[in-house]
Amino acid sequence: MTTFDAIRDAVLQMPKGDQVRILTLVALEVADAHPGIDFQDNICGGAARIIRTRIPVWLLESLRRGGKTDAELLTAYPTLTAEDLANAWNYARAHQEEMDREIAANGDDA
Question: Are residues 47 and 100 in the same domain?
């Protein structure tokens, strides 16, 4: 496996035009990236979830819409941090239609 340092060194050896092409490619790839949020087909059915957990963002958003506060969620899910919730809210805000769809598909009585 190639290390970050090896890739960095190789990129810095390239002509500037190629560096720009690589930067553009990476920027387009991560344009919709959300720190702390992960997706894996075999975990939570591929739904957006809090990294290192099996807690889907739609569930947290559903609970928040139902009136739960951040403090209540942190108590109910002791493995979560305030940063996890901030990441979830950021993702949910950027993906409202997805949240609506996931909540409807999974039952809004979560």
Answer: yes
Instruction: Give residue 98's domain range.
Output: 37-106
Which positions ≥6 away from 99 have C-beta within 8 Å? Answer: 57, 58, 61, 92
Secondary structure class of 62 (helix, strand, coil): helix
Same domain, 102 and 54: yes
> Tokens standing for 87?
């990441």
DSSP string across 87-99: HHHHHHHHTHHHH
Nearest CA among 90, 10, 80 for reference residue 48: 90
Residues in contact with 82: Cβ distance below 8 Å, sequence separation at least 6, in sequence order: 70, 74
Q: What's the predicted TM-score (pTM) here?
A: 0.71
Per residue of the chain (110 residues), give pLDDT as tens: 678 899 999 999 999 999 988 888 877 666 667 888 988 888 888 899 999 999 999 999 999 999 999 999 999 999 999 999 999 999 999 999 999 999 999 975 55
**CA-to-CA distance for 17 and 95, rounded, in angstroms?**
34
Q: How is residue 17 written in tokens?
A: 């035009």
